[in-house]
Design goal:
By secondary structure, the chain is mainly alpha-helical. The protein has two domains: 15-185, Preprotein translocase SecY subunit; 203-383, Preprotein translocase SecY subunit (Orthogonal Bundle), CATH 1.10.3370.10. The chain is built from 18 helices and five strands. The strands form two sheets. It has a three-stranded antiparallel beta sheet with strand order 4-1-5. It has a two-stranded antiparallel sheet with strand order 2-3. β2 and β3 form a beta hairpin.
């Protein structure tokens, strides 16, 4: 392993990319400790002592939310804006045309995504500042607007930081910022486990069970993330002039988890809505209904799993255009052995995709509700071990390692992964 790691630093270009990425991580971590002006951080931290939904958001921000720093909203508004633009690209003809224009079209979509990030970030910042106004030293309109502008500026800076990592560093910058935020919470979690052991709150058996579950979930997540169904495709020979085209075999890789972590984000956002509304409406029955949707309640857990199943199918259907895939195969002389090109091929691909999407949807639902069962089985509370965070960490790590592998192999060195 050390020999493989040394290959990374043998290439000047790759070494510079890795060093630049690590330097940007330091900037990100420094920003999580810069407090927003006019806020009592001690009051804020009391809201994040339990492993609820706020604890999940704090995990993604690398602890910036519990400190209410300038990076408290993390990169979440950018992710939401990107998802909205991706869906609008399928619905709005103009955006669909831009997506097919290559680099110039992508620049236009990226620019709109940035504007959307600012708008969504400002709206979210106002809601966050107003909802946490008990921690504001002077909760006037002016101070709330100042805090909202500060939080929005922090998100925009993180967006720029992520783009710089993508351009000059290694891997996807936005994903790596989330990755860094999650991994940075690991020492705190280990320290809490040590305190539990020292105080006698848990015994060594609980800790061993926790470790076994964690290792099993890591293996499970890697297997599903890498899992795919390979559909064989044969291309017929075509003679054009003196050249022969086609005549080779390939395959279409259909991923089990085609939707990634997006369905979990959708489902959690929808279920946060009643709880968020209850913070602004001081009515008894509204508060009662909102309590049913609090993180970890039976109703919330069941609805969470069902909505993840729905959004997995929805997002897969929106992003994977099977009729176009079948039509492109037919256009270039490709066919699946035993099937006629056109509609029979599209029906077959749709049937296969529906079956493997069910496996991916069930996987995502289990991953999302995992923290509730881990706490119940091991008796370890207050330490967030979530499948959502694990899914992000494993996915980003695998993608980044593949990019490093490709750069190393381009220079004819021994690969990073074997």
């Amino acid at each position: 392993m050390l020999g493989a790691l040394s290959n990374v630093f043998k290439i000047t270009e790759l070494r510079q990319k890795v060093v630049f990425t690590l330097a940007m991580f330091l900037v990100f971590r420094a920003g999580t400790h810069i407090p927003v002006p006019g806020v009592n951080a001690a009051v804020i931290e009391q809201l994040f002592t339990t492993g609820n939904l706020f604890g999940l958001m704090d995990l993604f921000s690398g602890g910036a939310l519990s400190k209410f720093s300038v990076f408290a909203m993390s990169i979440t508004p950018y992710i939401n804006a990107s998802i909205i633009m991706q869906l609008l690209t399928i619905v709005v003809p103009k955006f669909e045309q831009w997506a097919k224009e290559g680099e110039e079209g992508r620049k236009k979509i990226t620019q709109l995504t940035r504007y959307g990030t600012v708008l969504l970030g400002f709206i979210q910042a106002i809601g966050m500042a107003y909802g946490l106004r008990v921690a504001i030293i002077n909760p006037s309109i002016g101070y709330i607007l100042l805090i909202a502008l500060t939080l929005t500026a922090g998100t925009v800076f993180l967006m720029w930081l992520g783009e710089q990592i993508t351009e000059k560093g290694i891997g996807n910058g936005i994903s790596l910022i989330i990755f860094a935020g999650i991994v940075s919470r690991l020492p705190d979690g280990l320290y809490v486990l040590y305190q539990y052991l020292a105080a006698g709150t848990i015994h060594i058996g609980n800790l061993l069970l926790f470790i076994i579950i964690a290792l099993a979930m890591i293996v499970f997540v890697i297997a599903i993330q890498q899992g795919q169904r390979k559909i064989p495709v044969q291309y017929a020979k075509r003679v054009v002039g003196r050249k022969t085209y086609g005549g080779h075999s390939t395959h279409i890789p259909l991923k089990i988890n085609q939707a990634g972590v997006i369905p979990i984000i959708f489902a959690s956002s929808v279920l946060m809505f009643p709880v968020t509304i209850a913070q602004f409406v001081d009515v008894g029955w509204v508060k009662t209904m909102a309590s049913w949707f609090e993180w970890g309640t039976p109703l919330q857990t069941v609805l969470y799993a069902l909505m993840i199943l729905f959004f997995t199918y929805f997002y897969t259907a929106v992003t994977l255009n099977i009729p176009d895939m079948a039509e492109n195969m037919k256009k270039y002389g490709g066919f699946i052995p035993g099937l006629r090109p056109g509609k029979p091929t599209a029906d077959y691909l749709d049937r296969v995709m529906s079956r493997i999407t069910l496996a991916g949807a069930v996987f995502l639902a289990l991953i999302a509700i995992l923290p509730n069962f881990v706490a119940a089985v091991t008796g370890i509370k207050g330490v967030y071990f979530g499948g959502t965070a694990l899914l992000i960490v494993v996915g980003v790590a695998l993608d980044t390692m593949k990019q490093i592998e490709a750069l190393i192999l381009m220079r004819h060195y021994q690969g990073f992964m074997k």
